[in-house]
Amino acid sequence: MLGPVILAASRSDRMRRLVSAAPVTKQVVDRFIPGENVDEIVPIVRDLTDRGLELTMDVVGEDITTPEQAEAARDAYLELIDRLRPLDLGTRAEMSVKLSMFGQALDGGHELALRNVRPVVEAAAAIGTTVTLDAEDHTTLDSMFAIHEELRKDFPQTGCVIQAYLFRTEADARRLAAAGSRVRLVKGAYKEPAEVAYQQKHEIDKAYVRILKTLMEGDGYPMIGSHDPRLISIAQELAHRAGRKLDEYEFQMLYGIRGEEHLRLAAEGHRMRVYTAYGTDWYGYFMRRLAEKPANLRFFARSMVTKG
């Protein structure tokens, strides 16, 4: 399987230099990351929302090695929120944050990440929207869930992400499927050992359906993070069986993948949120997009051959 190889490459400085130097890379990266700064991303926000879509915004960058870099990440989100304010979009444009960007892996990282993310959550609430905490590798999750629980004391709309390939996630889903919670379910995009995660696609897919059933039958707000047509169809059926209305759950997909499906679901009355990343530190995010779906890797390889 190429996925684990690509995920390993996402942490390689040598591969970072090689991929970044390839002449075609920017053209391909632009498919998934439509801007490098807030000036470039605001028109994208306007365009997508004008077309009936909703967004969750991610300022890319995870390789934080100093508290100053973590503070800079915080400030980048605060700038984004300030620029979204006059658009008056409310929850149609929310934020997704990785706590690694806020210093979670540094000394005293749990407290540092909480201290840096809280102003972002406060600022988002001030413009009528919210923040979802992205899940990262399994070693970070206890800290992420603790921060999520702490933030929800003052900002109960704060969401979190759970990953179907981890063995622990079925128990996490049962705990989180409570009134007022917002939970995004994804398959998972980090290289995890067999001791903690399913390794085969069919096992992950079956776990995804079991967990999604728990979320749909619970009292929270499920967010279905998948591009898989079969899982999208299953999600619709599970929502129907649970008696959920169209505004009681939502679909989420990545910018640059299955754009026509985004519009189709929105036209049918579903809440369809596009995960839209921007920034200059795109390498880790980009490599995980390649690892998640073979078609993405083929697209990149074909571009390297024809345009390189």
Automatic annotation (TrEMBL):
Cofactor binding summary note: Binds 1 FAD per subunit.
Record's signal peptide: none
Record EC number: 1.5.5.2
InterPro entries named among the record's database cross-references: FAD-linked_oxidoreductase-like, PRODH_bac_arc, Proline_DH_dom, Proline_oxidase
Gene Ontology molecular function terms on file: nucleotide binding; proline dehydrogenase activity
UniProt-listed GO biological process terms: L-proline catabolic process to L-glutamate
Residues where FAD binds: Q163, K187, G188, A189, K201, S226, H227
Pathway the protein takes part in: Amino-acid degradation; L-proline degradation into L-glutamate; L-glutamate from L-proline: step 1/2
Catalytic reaction(s) noted: L-proline + a quinone = (S)-1-pyrroline-5-carboxylate + a quinol + H(+)
Proline dehydrogenase domain residues: 45-301
Superkingdom as given in the UniProt entry: Bacteria
Enzyme class label: oxidoreductase
Residues at which substrate binds: K98, R288, R289
Cofactor(s) named in the record: FAD
Keywords: FAD, Flavoprotein, Nucleotide-binding, Oxidoreductase, Proline metabolism
Entry-linked Gene3D superfamilies: 3.20.20.220
Name by which UniProt lists this protein: proline dehydrogenase
Species per Swiss-Prot/TrEMBL record: Streptomyces fumanus
